[in-house]
Amino acid sequence: KAGVTQTPRYLIKTRGQQVTLSCSPISGHRSVSWYQQTPGQGLQFLFEYFSETQRNKGNFPGRFSGRQFSNSRSEMNVSTLELGDSALYLCASQTSGRDEQYFGPGTRLTVT
Amino acid sequence: QKEVEQDPGPLSVPEGAIVSLNCTYSNSAFQYFMWYRQYSRKGPELLMYTYSSGNKEDGRFTAQVDKSSKYISLFIRDSQPSDSATYLCAMYNFNKFYFGSGTKLNVKP
Question: Which residue in B43, B92, B99 is closest to A104 by CB distance?
Answer without folding.
Answer: B43
